[in-house]
Design a protein that fits this description.
Helix content of chain B: 10-25%
Radius of gyration of chain A: 18 Å
Number of helices of chain A: 10
Distance between the termini of chain B: 44 Å
Shape of chain A: elongated
Order of helices and strands of chain A: HHHHHHHHHH
Largest sheet of chain B: 10 strands, mixed
Oligomer: heterodimer
Number of helices of chain B: 3
Low-confidence stretches of chain A: 90-99
Helix content of chain A: 55-70%
Order of helices and strands of chain B: HHEHEEEEEEEEE
Distance between the termini of chain A: 34 Å
Shape of chain B: elongated
Largest sheet of chain A: none
């Protein structure tokens, strides 16, 4: 996708070009919001505000080829503002009691759903790992520069932490028979 | 490394299934382009006292300026109160999903029941130019 061209077209009011940008980056923005543990409503709010900020800056994006990084940074700011407004701490406790939809493992076992069990185990990861992996799980896969912008982390730290977190998840998976036997 | 990539791809598939981008979020994103202020003069945020004086429950004080008008907003709960100079007629208080017109009396206007999120204000300068503020979060 030619992002600078799509941006320029959107700045001229081209809805088709705009919709192409929306398709390309909504997965990243949603993942950034979820990485900050926002609820459905707050995550939707953060993503929409990010797009509105882009509309406001359409002809003022300094480096159009780095739009994804700009969007990730803007989304992070929106998430932090929402967290501040609701009085929550930006780094919540490691135990997740939010309402993320995740079918229980028992259900997963019943229907033989590996994905459901994997998702459940993922939700139980320590926050630092859950945050990073949630952004890396965006569709389409984000570049490390965008992940760094989304989480305010040094680009160089992402590879090593990713590896540690995936190993940690593997260790948790090994405690789940339905996952272990096939991984 | 590629083993990690495979594992991450598996996780991505799980995320696509259990936490996909809601359709409404995509619709709102698509509709956002129509919120663009094309012909209006932009009133830029010049002062935001939120960080300095706002307690958790205090009002949010914002000041906007354009070539033709100045706008001071005081946002408290769901109420937006404003003082405008250099404008005539009604003001329009906009959120991404709503628009409300309200009269200006001696430079002041008040709108209640504004849904939290983003807000901007549209006014008409004395020479007829439409001026709109930047979006502000409250």
């Amino acid at each position: 996708m030619d992002i600078p061209a799509a941006l320029a077209a959107a700045a001229r009011g081209d809805q088709t070009a705009w919709d192409a940008l929306v398709r390309q980056f909504s997965g990243l923005l949603w993942s950034v919001a979820r990485a900050h543990r926002l609820s459905d409503a707050d995550a939707a709010d953060a993503v929409q505000c990010t797009w509105i900020k882009l509309v406001e800056h359409l002809d003022r994006i300094a480096e159009p080829e780095r739009l994804a990084g700009w969007l990730a940074t803007t989304a992070r700011h929106e998430c932090l503002q929402l967290i501040r407004r609701s009085g929550r701490l930006p780094e919540p406790a490691e135990i997740d009691d939010s309402a993320d939809p995740a079918p229980p493992v028992d259900h997963a076992l019943l229907v033989g759903e590996r994905d459901a069990a994997l998702w459940r185990v993922f939700e139980g990861l320590p926050d630092r790992c859950r945050r990073l992996l949630r952004v890396l799980m965006a569709s389409p896969p984000p570049a490390y520069a965008e992940v760094a912008a989304a989480l305010d982390m040094p680009v160089g730290s992402i590879g090593p932490i990713r590896q540690r977190c995936l190993n940690r998840l593997r260790a948790l998976v090994s405690g789940e028979p339905v996952l272990e036997e096939r991984s | 490394m590629s083993e990690d990539d495979d594992f991450l791809a598996e996780l991505r598939a799980a995320a696509d299934r259990f936490d996909p981008v809601p359709a409404g979020v995509l619709r709102d994103a698509s509709a956002a382009l129509a919120l663009r202020a094309l012909d209006e003069e932009l009133a830029v945020l010049v002062e935001n006292e939120a960080a300095l004086v706002r307690g958790d429950d205090g009002p949010l004080l914002l000041a906007f300026e354009s070539e033709r008008v100045t706008l001071n907003l005081e946002i408290s709960g769901d109420t937006v109160r404003g003082l405008v100079t250099g404008a005539v007629g009604e003001v329009v208080v906009e959120t991404p999903r709503s628009r409300r017109s309200t009269p200006v009396v001696d430079g002041w206007f008040t709108v209640t029941d504004v849904p939290s999120g983003l807000v901007r204000v549209r006014v008409t300068a004395t020479d007829g130019t439409v001026v709109v503020t930047q979006w502000a979060r409250f």
